[in-house]
Known about the structure:
Strand content of chain B: over 45%
Number of strands of chain B: 20
Oligomer: heterodimer
Structural class of chain B: alpha+beta
Largest sheet of chain B: 6 strands, mixed
Mean pLDDT of chain A: 86
Shape of chain A: rod-shaped
Helix content of chain B: 10-25%
Distance between the termini of chain B: 122 Å
Amino acid sequence: MPERKIFIKHAFILSLLFCLLNNSIAFAAYPSSSNYKIQEYSFGSGGTKNSTSSSFGLSGIAGEVEFGKQVSSNFKIGSGLTYIMKAAVPSAPTFTNPSNNYERLKFTINTIGNASDTTYALQISTDSAFLSDVNYVKSTNTIGPTLTTSDFQKYATWGGASGAYLTGLTSNTTYYLRVKARQGNYTESEYGPSASATTSVPSLTFSVSSSSATFNNLNASNAYTDATKSTILTTSTNAYNGYVINARSTGPLTSPASVTIADYTSPNSAPTTWSGNGFGYTTNDSSLTGGTADRFTNGGPKYAGFTTSSPGDPVADHPGPVISSISDDAFTISYKVQTSNIQKAASYTTTVLYIVVPSY
Amino acid sequence: MKQNNCIILKPFLFILVCSLLAHYFGWGVVPSVIAAEQTLRVSPVILTIPLSPGKIASQEATIENLSTHPLPLTASLNDFITSGEEGGYIFEESKENPLLSWITLSENNFILNPKEKKKVHITIKTPQRIPVGGYYGILFFEPIPQHSANTRTQINSKVGILMLANLGVPDPHAKKAEILAFTPDMFSQDGSVPFMLRVKNVSLNFFTAKPILTVSPLIKFSHPEKPLFLEEKIIFPGKIRRWTQANTIQNLSPNIYKAHIVVDVGNGQVENEDQYFIVFPYLTALIASFILFIVIFVLAKIKRLKDAVAALFRP
């Protein structure tokens, strides 16, 4: 019996020693095999994407980039606990107003190394803290109150390095834009830092080169004709849909005794090479709305008579879309008056009105 | 000394008399530009005004005289209606327009000195009971013509600001637009496909329509084309806008394609439609097939053709 007690006592001491030794080995040693040995490891924040040298590469265990099995030609990490790794938080996008637009701003996403199949969503607000007036950039590059799956798009679809224009914004307003990323389910990052840009004030500047025109005295020496007078119309605007200038007169050229020189008979929609008598005009706008675009310029100057009805006829325009502002867009309206030799001598006048309105 | 004065004065008098006569009889060419220019800047270009029944809304428009001389100006309100599908205007000066009757301008007539700008305040007092929907008008600034000699034809300018007001908040789930037509050409010979798009506003409020076209090959020889963003256009209630001029899908390789049009009508709402078309150089293929047929025919019948030719030249 004493021998048995001694044996149990020794066995207990040996077991204890073995356990202690075993534990100390377990605490002190690192995983190894005949082919490899990990020198050191620790549990950190998981923020490192990977560590590499010329002979090995090891992905971070948490946070960042890929998920799934890690393989190479030399090793493979088999199934087990699979890590789902969050996409990298995008840095602030590039957000600008390069063309002085009033209803659109240009943005470019910064991917900061996310894989090409990563999708991005954009949040926009007029509040720098994103606490109020929060909207999302829809897949159509407009803004809307909800974020849907289709609004997550790849970098290339958001315009890639060229960026894209976000439209439908309010003029003269500062917007803040930030981006988040995801690469498959459960990988969505937080929103990154925001960038801001301000829409411009829309404006339209219109200039007429003169506020009156005095025609030559019509007589036999000039064949009762004057085609030397003109007005230059100059327009600058950042209106997206451009502008159109209409012209009309208050009536035909009329003398104080109410004798008239009739308006040239061809209409604006079908101007003709000058023939006969009357008072007409031509424009050098070769892409004019309201009919065949070059109807006034193709085949030499073609003339039409002024209409007296509102809003007049188009004499110059600049169609949209206007992405870069229009600056000093100039068109020349040239007048021509011709009478017969029996036209009563007098001073004939009228008023020509040029009306510029934004296109919509 | 007396004689010298006469020598100096005579030519001077002669020129003076000649000048007076020339002016009286209208001799000589009068310069075309005899008055200073008019240059006006307005801002904004389009005023979007949200309205609520019984409430007063305030907006402002800025007018600036960029001319080198003072300009007396008048501000006036006009009705306008849209015409056609290309964005035409008709200014209806005499028509009753509810919006215009609610508007008061802070100033209607004023003088702007050179480089001076003025803010014109627009106050819109909306009645308590009015139908929801869109109300529109146009605000014109026009220099008041100055009296001048009656030998001159007056040239005057007028600059307009569109005023677009929506009364009430539209139902976010209500259908706003309808694609009436989306018609790319069914067959293309050279890889360019013209198309037309017509969209109708079926809501009570105006909106800006933004069409985006995506073309994808059905047989995956090539990648989908980059989305084509068409011009954004305002569509008024009940009106139709058309996208057609210069809208052509370019440089497509032979394939069957799906054209997917998405029309964003704001607030996250979209309308979309798909159409299919074929890019195939069928004329080239027809000519090639014909040549191939001739070659095969000649090869198949070469012996008989030789006999025929020989018979033709046999004496």
